[in-house]
Amino acid sequence: MNNQQFKFWCENYFTSENRVSQALVMGIVNVTPDSFSDGGQYNELPKALAHALRLVDEGADIIDVGGESVRPGAMPVSEQEELDRVIPFIERLRQESDICISIDTTKPAVMKEAINAGAGLINDISALQEDKALSVAASTDCAICLMHMQGTPNTMQDNPHYGDVIDEINEFLKQRIEACVAAGIKRERLIVDPGFGFGKKVEHNLQLTNQLSRFSIHQRPILLGVSRKTTIGKVLNKNIDERLIGGLVLTTIAMEQGLGIIRTHDVADTKQVVTMMQAVNKSWSDTNKMGA
């Protein structure tokens, strides 16, 4: 899927009655030395490029590149350092593939340069709250993912609390969508992410997965990243490299509730889940049509 095809997918997502058939897989490439799962593995350009192309071969519809770790307790990096990490990668990947590229950043300058280099999606964990982020996003025609996070990466796991976690996330997303529209960004360009693991305890993450369909109130595609997250480790008592099955179970539950984009480190395995879910869903739809 290239950038234009992804934009069309995003704009027309809610015109389809069968959204399971439209679910996409987003492969993660962290060009950082300190990300929680794969930090340091792909912070050299040749390794990062080879990994991204491998994810494309495994079935990724989107490649999400990040140049700043957002693990719990992470400290911010400078704008220039982040640019130096992500822009050469985007330029080289664009030379090798027409895959849709997502830039995972909160910094407006990085968003702008990444789009100029070939990215087609802004994936912002701060939901365009940084100064000038709205105006930069409005100046492009790319898709934008707005994520909920309580606090910052450095503070988000310092005893997060909610009254009703779903209601509070939905209210935040509603306000950010309204801010985007007021800034001149078409609603059809937007994607929402409830922010699994970002300023949330285990019970919050399980609740938002179990009730993911409630985020459909915004009539926008839902993105979810559960891959190798701490919640899985705590529930199953597993280390980071042992959390695949737990992540696939959460993916299946989320897909049943209309998940649009699955963000994952493990593309090949996740793609099998998506393909199997889509086959079962198609069989059910075909049976209903025959009985109509």
From TrEMBL:
EC nos: 2.5.1.15
Cofactor annotation: Mg(2+)
Domain of life where this protein originates: Bacteria
MF terms in GO: dihydropteroate synthase activity; metal ion binding
Domain Pterin-binding: 23-275
GO annotation terms (biological process): folic acid biosynthetic process; tetrahydrofolate biosynthetic process
Broad class of enzyme this protein falls into: transferase
Reaction catalysed by this enzyme: (7,8-dihydropterin-6-yl)methyl diphosphate + 4-aminobenzoate = 7,8-dihydropteroate + diphosphate
Assigned keywords, A-Z: Folate biosynthesis, Magnesium, Metal-binding, Transferase
PROSITE patterns reported for this sequence: DHPS_1, PTERIN_BINDING
The protein's annotated pathway: Cofactor biosynthesis; tetrahydrofolate biosynthesis; 7,8-dihydrofolate from 2-amino-4-hydroxy-6-hydroxymethyl-7,8-dihydropteridine diphosphate and 4-aminobenzoate: step 1/2
NCBIfam families with a match to the protein in the record: DHPS
Family: Belongs to the DHPS family.
Role according to the record: Catalyzes the condensation of para-aminobenzoate (pABA) with 6-hydroxymethyl-7,8-dihydropterin diphosphate (DHPt-PP) to form 7,8-dihydropteroate (H2Pte), the immediate precursor of folate derivatives.
Protein name: Dihydropteroate synthase
Organism: Legionella birminghamensis
